[in-house]
Specification:
This protein is mainly β. 3% of the residues lie in helices and 59% in strands. It has one helix spanning 201-207; strands at 13-21, 26-34, 40-52, 58-68, 73-82, 89-102, 110-119, 125-133, 139-149, 155-166, 171-178, 188-194, 208-210. The strands form four sheets. The protein has a four-stranded antiparallel beta sheet. The protein has a three-stranded antiparallel beta sheet with strand order 1-2-5, with no helix packed on it. A three-stranded antiparallel beta sheet has the order 7-8-11, with no helix packed on it. The N and C termini lie close together (8 Å).
């Protein structure tokens, strides 16, 4: 924006990346990315998961875009990645970060209630709960990420779902299934919720100003 004195945001941090075998020839991919800034949000960032075989040859890649709020450590999940070749290694990369400086930004108040992990009659794992929107505004879409951990804290299962048009003070239930056997013992689970406040023009007019790199 031509302002030479403007603060420069700290770069995004990749905290982890992992591929998880699920059903035959299928993999779930997960990465965790942190925005260490308190005054800058990421309006848009491109990412790519690159999959390699045992000969270190690139098999395929999966690309997408996401957003990250200030001080947020966000899980990025891609499910049902198909590969006939055995996957030996994965690399996760970020590109095209679009920062936005925020004024008087207040965090979303999305509460998770009635968290539950259970084994279904078919022997599959299921996470359920309810998301309550305690924010001061309606949300067009809420994304829900579910993670399963073993005794050492390693991720052994990931899932995601979404809710559309969640109004203020509204509570909405969700379920997430893993329709295959997980051989490791599940010691813990986590649920994370995200919503893209940057897509709301009224919100941006009141709280933010664009920043171009």
């Amino acid at each position: 924006n031509g302002n030479q004195n403007q603060e420069t945001p700290k770069p995004l941090e990749i905290l982890l990346d992992k591929f998880i075998p699920t059903t035959e020839n299928n993999y779930d991919l997960v990465a965790r990315v942190k925005n260490p800034n308190s005054d800058f949000g990421v309006e848009s960032v491109g990412y790519v998961f690159e999959i390699y075989d045992s000969n270190n040859q690139l098999i395929a890649s999966k690309q997408g875009k996401t957003y990250i709020l200030p001080q947020e450590a966000k899980y990025i999940i891609e499910q049902k990645f198909f590969s006939e070749k055995f996957v030996s290694k994965m690399e996760f990369k970020l590109k095209d970060v679009s920062w936005i400086k925020l004024k008087e930004f207040s965090e979303l108040e999305l509460r998770i209630k009635n968290r539950n992990l259970q084994l279904t009659a078919e022997g599959f794992n299921k996470i359920s709960g309810a998301i309550e929107n305690r924010s001061n505004y309606d949300l067009d879409k809420i994304e829900v990420a579910g993670l399963l951990f073993d005794e050492s804290g390693e991720i052994i299962g990931v899932g995601k779902t979404e809710m559309r048009t969640v109004l203020r003070d509204e509570s909405r239930g969700f379920e997430m299934f893993w329709p295959y056997q997980i051989s490791e013992t599940i010691s813990n689970f986590d649920i994370r919720v995200y919503s893209n406040v940057f897509s709301n023009e009224n919100f941006l007019k009141a709280h933010g100003e664009g920043l171009t790199e």
